[in-house]
Amino acid sequence: MSTATSTRSELPRRHPLLLVALGVALWVLVYAQLEPLSFALVGLMGLAPGTRLAGAVQFFLYDTPKVLMLLTGVVFLMGIVHTFVSPERTRQALSGRRTGAGNAMAAGLGIVTPFCSCSAVPLFIGFLQAGVPLGVTFSFLIAAPMVNEIALGMLFALFGWRVALLYLAMGLLVAIVAGMALGALGLDGWIEDWVTELRSQPQTAAAPGTTLTWHDRVEAGGQHVREIVGKVWIYIILGVALGAGIHGYVPEDFMASIMGNDAWWSVPAAVLLGVPMYTNAAGVIPIVEALLAKGAALGTALAFMMSVIALSAPELIILRKVLKPKLIATFVAIVATGILLVGVVFNHVL
Question: Out of 103, 237, 247, 338, which could bridge 174 as a Cys pair, Cβ 3.0 to 4.6 Å?
Answer without folding.
Answer: 338
